[in-house]
């Protein structure tokens, strides 16, 4: 058994049975090993950013890592952006990257690059296998690292000769450490803060956004009078009817500052402090009031759910949470695109237990409130700001959840970064409804130029314009093997969306947003 | 004048008047500055790999750098692969990357990444401006670095506050050092070697592939009996009628070893030694015979043309070179695709003074010999092995050469990495004929799997298959605003190609290669 085969068998023994791949020559022995080892589902992506975005979507929904298989140097470079998103989402990923044979590196062949340096920028764990005997044990260690709380990108680099040399057999799965518990004195301190009468915000992210985490947070809020809010970038959140409705911090700095004004205490639960996405002259980086106390109930790697439950008990909160009707489900609206009317229409249409993937900052801003009463669903968002995450993340989520519909909400500007994900959806006949918001402009940049105090001129206007020529998303989708149609009104959108819900396999709706 | 404006004006003062851009929020002040500063042509790419590939193609043809404008962290990551190709081609590039404001970095906002570490993997020169006062001088230093022989990727990282803070005005252009000359004793040593009766190969790359370099090399060859060969990866080569015909080292190791067998001396001119692209078990990394002497006439940063001319004089070679007819121009062939018949057909059709960009390893293998007698042209090839280079490189070359037709020879697998370059071609109405070799398979990997001694099984067969579903290149091109048509025979191809030569603006021909 060579190193490559020992890795394939070790990954399976550690529970990793899905591999998103875009291999090259230095990975041929691993591909050959996969021919010999049954049980690994291999999903081809036609560009590395597809592979890594799929691994992110898969890991968020499967709660276990997929493996990637990528080509050395520039191959990995092409996949870094979505690994960056995965790192920010604490998604478990076993990122397998081939490299030149150890003895070939000194010849500086064309593809030679500093693969470790590239991997380090997006990984919490990096290892290059030193010999073929180490490949199996290194594979087991990579899975352990990926699964260690809060979830990590573990990059395993395999020089080609470690793949083709004699391996050391199948390495056993390594134990995954339990999440550490929040110390009792921290719980007591936070409980005291929540009883001191100050106006408090509980700021949630990551594990705290699970159904159980949100229920416990609501108990704490009910017992203490604190408000609940989530971070702007949501790795995964349980939402819809029967789930605790919690809104998210707005992306624009001024709106965020307004939402946070007046809070005297901000208590972080598996979240970083509320921080501006970008700096702007004269605007703050930290968005909570300067005199507010910021304290931490649980760090991302700790057991935030247990901490919230213990805190609720400590505060004497009742076990049961009463969720109001929230005003009922919005109805399908008519007319042209408008963020609120679209959000209401989508909320009315979302199928039961669907997975929503959002990569649409400007068109998606109004989506949250109307969908509190939608059918129960999970919501995944771009977490690291590396746009173009939507199509691949939705593709990976669909691989992880074969019984569930995936709804991908994709901005047109961002959608251009990872088009070949559509082909993987078609190839694997994945149940994804892709909605492209075709406003034909980098709308966010138009706003950001004004934000920095500049007056738009001819160059900036041209640099933000996607209308000359217009992208034809129906043809682009069909070119990748995905059926597609265009909507210009909410009624047309609703008809297409309903039809797409009834069929199997991918579909794309281009929603033309006319200025 | 803020830092951003001082950079824009400094770049212009240093002769950089073209900027390939995919900006984000942290680059807004630079975009705003470009609104104020006339004279910079800004070309939008809808993904960073387009931006960097364009800068590579532009720099190879313009012999001066374009600037890029890219977004922090993951934005740069998306552009690394084509910067890797540019680095391998010694293309001058001024790679401008925005970043978070210096004071914003500690907040670890979502896009925060190690931008310098990413830049270092592909750049010969990296600098982060420390204050807004340094942006102008740093810009001039970046242009100087980019133009320093043999041509470099110079990455200038601009924290947002250095762009919006007060600048120090326009920095003057800095002197570019002359190429260093090859020392007389080296010339004498190489001349002695060429007279010693041993079988010699002169192995050329980079500057030696210019029209003048090739003429001088031919004089040396004629006077000494040595053979001429180019490296497999060609940054730019003057070819066609009236130029010295020199073939390239084949990509497959076995073929390359065969071509190099029997040489007792390999003399390098601006080239690395002949090296295998990948390592394979039991095959060599260095492709020349183990007992051959490898010596260096000129390093890439030296004046290889002057060295070849001095060597020719030293050897007493006549000034005039007689180029044979080479057997005349091949004719347009008929029937299905076949690499040799296609190469002959293309050679017959290439328009005068066109620029050929090749990113098609398997379909392109036979292209060289028939085109020795084609109309005069320049040939640019993928140099770093980071596939997906064709469309963007051709786009940038067309921006650099408005009067010349660009012919982009693009493999279908590799073509999927940078589709949005087609949109830039349409937007700028660039004169590019894109030819996609639609063999619907990762053909090179099929061969490489056999090369490593494996037997194809179901997983590898699926991972190399691009036919399920088939990509529809005509629709993909049309979706990006580029007119397109499919050819299934060489006659159809010739008709489409001739028609495309007569029109202006981009066109795409999908050549369906049926197994």
Describe this entry's structure for a reader.
2 copies of one chain form a homodimer. Chain A is α/β, with parallel strands linked by helices and 515 residues long. Chain A has 3 domains: 3-164, Thiamin diphosphate (ThDP)-binding fold, Pyr/PP domains (Rossmann fold, 3-Layer(aba) Sandwich), CATH 3.40.50; 184-314, Rossmann fold, CATH 3.40.50; 339-512, Rossmann fold (3-Layer(aba) Sandwich), CATH 3.40.50. In chain A, 36% of the residues lie in helices and 17% in strands. The first copy, chain A, has helices at 3-13, 28-36, 48-62, 74-89, 115-120, 135-147, 160-164, 184-194, 211-224, 253-260, 304-314, 339-349, 390-400, 412-415, 421-427, 443-451, 458-463, 473-479, 490-502, and strands at residues 18-22, 41-44, 66-70, 93-99, 125-128, 153-159, 200-204, 227-230, 237-239, 265-269, 293-298, 354-359, 377-381, 406-411, 432-438, 483-487, 507-512. In chain A, the strands form 3 sheets. The first copy, chain A, has a 7-stranded mixed β-sheet with strand order 9-13-12-14-15-17-16, sandwiched between helices. A 6-stranded parallel β-sheet of chain A has the order 2-1-3-4-6-5, sandwiched between helices. In chain A, strands 8-7-10-11 form a 4-stranded parallel β-sheet. Chain A starts with a helix and ends with a strand. In chain A, 64% of the residues are buried. The mean pLDDT of chain A is 96. At the A-B interface, helix 2, helix 4, helix 5, helix 7 and helix 15 of A face helix 2, helix 4, helix 5, helix 7 and helix 15 of B.
């Amino acid at each position: 058994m060579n190193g490559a085969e020992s890795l394939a068998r070790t990954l399976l023994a550690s529970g990793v049975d899905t591999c998103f791949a875009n291999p090259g020559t230095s990975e041929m022995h691993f591909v050959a090993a996969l021919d010999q080892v049954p049980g690994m589902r291999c999903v081809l992506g036609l560009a590395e950013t597809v592979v890594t975005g799929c691994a992110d979507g898969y890991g968020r929904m499967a709660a276990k890592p997929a493996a990637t298989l990528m080509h050395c140097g520039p191959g990995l470079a092409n996949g870094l952006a979505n690994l960056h998103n995965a790192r920010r989402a604490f998604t478990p990923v076993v990122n397998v990257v081939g490299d030149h044979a150890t003895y070939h590196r000194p010849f500086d062949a064309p593809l030679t690059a500093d693969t470790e340096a590239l991997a380090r920028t997006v990984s919490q764990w990096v290892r290059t296998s030193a010999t073929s005997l180490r490949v199996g044990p290194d594979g087991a260690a990579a899975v352990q690292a990926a699964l260690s709380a809060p979830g990590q990108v573990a990059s395993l680099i395999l020089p080609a000769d470690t793949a083709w040399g004699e391996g050391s057999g199948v390495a056993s799965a390594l134990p995954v450490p339990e999440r550490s518990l929040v110390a009792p004195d921290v719980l007591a301190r936070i409980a005291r803060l929540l009883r001191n009468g100050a106006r408090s915000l509980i700021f949630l992210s990551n594990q705290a956004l699970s159904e159980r985490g949100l229920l416990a947070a609501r108990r704490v809020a009910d017992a203490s009078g604190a408000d609940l809010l989530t971070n702007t970038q949501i790795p995964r959140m349980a939402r819809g009817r029967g789930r605790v409705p919690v809104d998210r911090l707005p992306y624009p700095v001024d709106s965020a500052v307004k939402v946070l004004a007046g809070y005297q205490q901000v208590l972080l639960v598996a979240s970083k402090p509320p921080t501006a996405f970008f700096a702007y002259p004269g605007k703050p980086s930290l968005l909570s009031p300067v005199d507010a106390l910021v304290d931490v109930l649980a760090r991302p790697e700790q057991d935030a759910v247990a901490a919230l439950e213990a805190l609720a008990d400590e505060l004497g909160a009742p076990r049961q949470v009463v969720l109001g009707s929230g005003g009922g489900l919005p109805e399908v609206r008519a007319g042209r695109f408008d963020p609120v009317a679209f959000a209401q229409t989508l909320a009315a249409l979302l199928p039961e237990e669907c997975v929503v993937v959002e990569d649409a900052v400007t068109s998606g801003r109004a989506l949250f409130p109307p969908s509190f009463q939608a059918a129960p669903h999970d919501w995944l968002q771009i977490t690291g700001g590396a746009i173009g995450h939507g199509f691949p993340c939705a593709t990976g989520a669909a691989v992880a959840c074969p019984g569930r519909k995936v709804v991908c909400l994709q901005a047109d500007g961002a959608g251009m970064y990872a088009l070949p994900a559509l082909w993987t959806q078609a190839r694997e006949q994945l149940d994804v409804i892709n909605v492209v918001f075709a406003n034909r402009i980098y709308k966010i940049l138009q706003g950001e130029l004004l934000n920095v105090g500049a007056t738009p001129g001819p160059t900036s206007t041209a640099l933000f314009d996607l209308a000359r020529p217009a992208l034809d998303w129906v043809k682009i989708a069909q070119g990748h093997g995905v059926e597609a149609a265009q909507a210009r009104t909410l009624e047309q959108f609703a008809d297409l969306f309903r039809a797409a819900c009834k069929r199997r396999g991918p579909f794309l709706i281009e929603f033309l947003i006319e200025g």
